[in-house]
Each structure stands twice: as structure tokens, then as C-alpha cells.
Amino acid sequence: MTDIRVVRDRSRAPALELTDVVKRFGSGATEVRAVTDVTLTVAPGELVAVMGPSGCGKSTLLHLAGGLDDPSAGTVRVAGRDVPQMSATERASLRRTDVGYIFQRLNLVVSLTALENVMLPLELEGTGRREAKRLAREALGSVGLVEQLDRFPDSFSGGQQQRIAVARALIGSRRLILADEPTGALDTMTGDQVIELLAELPSRHGTAIVLVTHEPRYASWADRVVFMRDGRVVDEAAPDGAPGTDAVRQRVGAPT
After folding, report:
1. Whether the Cβ atoms of residue 46 and residue 223 lie closer than 8 Å to each other
2. Which of 21, 112, 180, 187 is most buried, taking the most CB atoms under 10 A from its CB?
3. Which residues make up the CATH 3.40.50.300 domain(s) of the chain?
4. What are phi and psi of 177, to 5 degrees?
5. Helices marked H in 145-186 — which ranges?
6. CATH superfamily membership of 1-98+175-256
7. pTM for the whole thing?
């Protein structure tokens, strides 16, 4: 694997900016704070990994970042735009054009071919079918899939399906990709390939990535690693050295 480190472009508005963000569920005695006073800025072309134990608020943080949920307090901005102040239509457009999602559960449309799955966000935004097909083929080619794109998702391996999901998240020159445990359902070799692919996107496309992961070796690809516990950001590290560096492993108590 090649160690890719990105020169971040801080002359542009941050790809993602969270300020004093709080997310509460329930009220009174049953209130639960999933996220508490989180402030985080992600620059264009930066890969930030988020780590922490299960239930610490990592996935909730991604939902807030992408406008899938509203904060109880604080501000969330994507490319300078105040997401909680957007209408439902504006948020849907944001998710089709500026924010891409990659989940452990891929959410591919099983009745559409690989090519049609990647074309879908463009067509929903009004791009003509011929142009959408051209751009989708380019996106799939960039993740190493160039043949048999008329097959349906369940005929591909798990790693190939995740590559389709990456291509769909990338389509349309996304400013920000939110990846929630994208390797969780993959074997180690395939997971390594997917993370290496994601790590190339900031330098190739200027895309910012927020990656939630439990794996120190995957987090070590990041420019920064943010550690969460009980809904709070409790620490931050900048990996130093090649992927798999001990710096991140030591922070999470993983074996070196």
C-alpha cells in the first residue's frame, strides 16, 4: 500500500463544521445525550477518522453531519451552509450533490444494476441519462470496476458491492463523504482494499472524508483521528508514519 498524505486546502470553507453540537433523545428522567458539546472542523481534502466504543455517539455524529438528523443545540455547516436551517428539499439536494454516504449496510438498490445504482443520484438531480451513464462509468472505473456493470448487486462479491457504494457516494464531485464502518461486513483483505481506495479520494478529488471505524490500522490512514467517549470528543491524534503505525493503536489500547 502507498501511504497518501494530503495537503489540505484551508483557503476554502470547511467541508464540515460542527460547533458545540448536542443531540438529546427523550426528556426529563429518560433523557439521553448521544452527542455532547462536540466541535469539529474538517477541511477540504482531509481524511478524519472517528473512533470510540460502541454507543459513544459516532454514528449519531455522522447523521447530524449529513442532515439526516437535527442537533438539539449547536450548529452544523457543510461547505459553509447551515444544514439545520435547510428545508427538507434543500437537504435532499445537499445529499444528492455535496454529501455522499457509505454504510456498513450498503443500501444498494437490489432491483437496479451496478451502473444504475451509481447513476441514480445524478438522475434524481435532473442529469440526462446519457450524461449520467457516462459519469457513472467513470466513477465505477475509478474504483476498479469496469466490466459487467449491467449485473445486479447480489451477483457481486461483498468487496465489489462496497466499491459500487463508494462510486455512488463519489458521483457528482462530492465535497464530503461520511463513511460509517464501511469495512465492518468485509474480510480483512477486502477491507484493506476499500480503505486504501477511500484514502486516495482526498488527493485525487479534493473530497473530505469522515470515517467511523473500530480498526486502528484503518484509522492510521487518516490525517487526524478523533476519539469519542460518552458522546464527547475526548482526544485527538495525528498518525505519524505508514499505515498501521503504533500511535493510533496505543491510543485505543489495541495490541501493537
Report:
1. yes
2. 21
3. 1-98+175-256
4. -120, 130
5. 158-170
6. P-loop containing nucleotide triphosphate hydrolases (3.40.50.300)
7. 0.82
Give the Cα-Cα-Cα angle 162, 165, 168 (nearest 5 degrees). Answer: 155
**Per-residue pLDDT in tens (0 to 9) along the chain, 256 residues:** 333 333 444 447 899 999 999 999 988 888 899 999 999 999 999 999 999 999 999 999 999 999 999 999 999 999 899 999 999 889 888 887 889 888 877 788 999 999 999 999 888 878 899 999 999 998 888 788 888 899 999 999 888 888 898 888 888 778 899 999 888 777 888 788 888 888 888 888 788 999 999 999 899 999 999 999 999 999 998 876 444 445 444 554 443 3
Q: Which of 249, 250, 189 is nearest to 219 (CA)?
A: 249
CA distances to 3, 51, 139, 220, 225 from 234, rounded to whole Å, are: 27, 10, 37, 18, 11
Q: What does the alpha-carbon distance between residue 240 and residue 229 come to, in Å, rounded to a whole number?
A: 23
CA 117 – CA 108 distance, rounded (Å): 7
CB 34 within 8 A of CB 18: no
Q: Which residues on neighbouring strands pair with residue 209, listed in sequence order?
A: 47, 177
Strands 99-103 and 176-180: parallel
Strand partners, 178: 101, 210
Q: Which three cell numbers stand for residue 138?
A: 467513470
